[in-house]
Protein: Beta-galactosidase
Amino acid sequence: MQISRPAPGVGALAPRARLTTDAPQQSLAGSWRFRLSPTLHEAPENWRDDDVASWDEIQVPGHWVLQGHGAPAYSNVQMPFPVDPPHPPMANPIGDHVLDFVADDALLAHAEQIIRFDGIESAGEIWLNGEWLGSTRGSRLTHEFDVTGILHAGENRLAVRVAQFSDASYLENQDMWWLPGIFRDVTLLARPAGGIRDVFATADFDPEAGSGSLNLAVEAEGEWRVEIPELGVSSSGEPAKLTGLAVEPWTAETPRLYDVVVRAAGETVTLRTGFRRVEVKNTEILVNGSPIMLRGVNRHEHHPEKGRVFDAEWVRAELELMKRHNINAVRTSHYPPHPDTLALFDELGFWVIDECDYESHEFVMVDWRGNPSADPAWRDALMDRIRRTVHRDKNHPAVIMWSMGNEAGVGQNLDAMMLWTKQFDPSRLVHYEGDWSCRNADVYSRMYAGHEEVEQIGREGLSPAAAGLDAAHARRVTLPFIQCEFVHAMGTGPGGMQEYWDLFEQYPRLAGGFVWEWVEQGIAVTGEDGERRIMIGGDFGEAVHDGNFVIDGLVSPDREPRPGLLHYAATIAQVQIRVDTSRATAVVENRFDHIDLSGVDLIAERVVDGETVARIALETPRVAPRGSATIELPPELRDPRDARAADIVTVRALTARDSAWAPAGHEISSGQDAHLAAPVAPAASGDAADVSTGSGQLRSVGPLAIDAGPSLGVWRAPTDNDWGRLHAEEDPTPYAERWRRGGYDRAVTRIVSAAEADGVVRVHSRTGVPILDCAIDARMTWTALEGGAVRLDLEIEPDGEWPTEWARLGLDLVIGAAPRGASYLGDGPMSAYPDMRAAARTGWWSLADDELVVDSVTPQESGARQGVVDASVETAAGTLRIRALDAPFALTVSPYSRDELARKTHNWELEADGRTHVSIDLLQSGVGTASCGPGALPRYRVAPRAVRTSLLFEGRD
Ligand code: GAL
Structure:
């Protein structure tokens, strides 16, 4: 087996489009025989005729490492073996796959047959009935081989030897699991006489004329004819150009598809085509003449049990979930997905950046020495990859850009790939992030550029004067800008999305971005205790790995939305509503690029003290794309307000009709005007509150015992983002590290004085950190009130030089019984932080015990609810009610202590201590996105400062 050549596979047919054909096909998916050898050297030479009855069975498509053979391995930039191109390591598992099968008569009835492999990682050698068909390179790329005369009636034997690593691994160092195997479909296809080998349909829409045209390049044997049945048009033979078609255009918002049927004597193929025109004008990306905004995510193919094996229902469900969260764009990071995914993008409506299966990021570790992008020896391999990418997917209207790959440096081979792509398919844009000269790209693309730089790029686009700029910059400045990756959805976060989005909305050049990434790529295994566990890098004994950096998605490995997804959905929502009851208006902004709001219903609701007092359907204003309108609120929704009440007016935008991805009535977004009146505290009872004058601790509130606290806390269990280096800052030290060095996690309190007089307990405490002389002076005044409540008046004053900002400033209390849930009046219902709260709405929310904190794969701080004015924390021992007498607070209720969260590296290792940990945070730092990208913006950091507030506590058993 030749696996040390910087070359494409051998023997495959020329790449072509994936076509839906009436020619017979036979899937070879199912149970195959399998044998693993630890090295190529140890893999038997003569194996193809072996009796395989004793071999293991394996499911194809499948990864052998997820079926009990060997183990998955996760690494990001670093290679798991020496960078010694084009050689794979000696320790290179070899998987021999054998399938004995009977070919369908329907296939054999035709003159010719081919076999198609849609994905083999990393290199395959293929034999049919002892004849060598060839080899594959490009794990996520399709290879077809001619089997005419080799495939025969009766029993056939297909034998495929797969190397886990090969020369191709140097081109496939994407940030993901190494998952070898025949993981996509294997199919036999009849090639009829008089058949159609390939079709390239370019379906254009002329926005000025309002009509479409179809340009068809067909490779067929003999005569052929094209029809668009729905339009009643047809044409025969080359050149096939149908013009002046009365079509509705395709957009991600209106994914209108037409069947295009191509008939030849021996075969009919059907494409689903959408008519649209993609172009760049005046630094904007236009589709059908209108600028578009990419509300995107980066999507890896990942399933917690199956890895990158395609599951049609699962993928449809995940794309529908994206649509329900206002996502309209996908970058297929970092390889073309399973071919059927493209049809789903077309049907559901996504703008797609289809990316070539190419990443050579490992070479950054060696200063890009020997990078394949620049080495002519790899040119054919790379050209083969881009050709296979473009050909396979060229008929999909969803694809608006071809991406050359990811993080592959710069070089002449990339240039050649871009030039070929442009010349082959001028109807789409060419994307590559890694070369900021943009000499061949049609868009300027970056990843994780900070807010300031993005603003600068946006501003530059307002008057793209080339004078005085170097050549690269002069070209770049004429291009639209996207962030092919921005905000890193790792752990609690990402923060700062809204601030990016505001810039994207403000500057026409900024055409949006793609969150990194859609799904947390955790692998599920069954632990010794029978429990399902999510595994991360290193859990399979890898010597080289990148730990939990693979867990950085908007949804969990099981596709459960993380709070970040909800906040992203609100940030990017195509309908934005601002309610102002004092003016009796709501501003409704239409952020769709191509449609008006006729598909949107507006429902307004007024809730006073938890009771719905009005629910009214508002007339949706006629608003053109990217326009806005102000509507008047009916009298029931206006002021005057009851000054003693919580009075909330919410206007929701709902889908008016069923769509492929949501039933009518699905909420797109909402806007609110909320007035929350502070409660009036009862009079003092004259009794003393149950506060220890020795420790300063609150011992009980009414019948409810308090185990510990309140103590002052300035630390949180570091989030993944807190561990991120702040690359763009003067001091790049991660906050988690700064807090640890500053001893913020080990703060201790000394009671300066505590005394009771006239039923009022006054406690002066000083909270400091080990080693340093900085402190917080806190003055707590406790007053028992009539009815059993306790009032706390709190004054906090920092003292000395705190070495860095606080994570928060909170009062921490512990109740000696497990949490049962919480209900509150405040913003929610989801976890939110000051720089990640777009989705939170004011209301009466109630949380079950398993909704209090986020079950992040890696334990960390989560679960804060913002803007809380009234909360009831339910525990097995009773309920603690906490009310804000002036400023709202952030509430976190957790079954885990912060130390426990900080100590454990997997959620399944967490041990609840049977107590309820309550934090009332008066200040909280934003979360930012420093796990990859900028930290919390300065305005969201918490410089030590004085705070005063008043709270009311009540206890119930
Ligand atoms: C980018 C890269 C992604 C991913 C991300 C961090 O640089 O393109 O593949 O590694 O960083 O999670």
User: Anything to note?
Assistant: The radius of gyration is 31 Å.
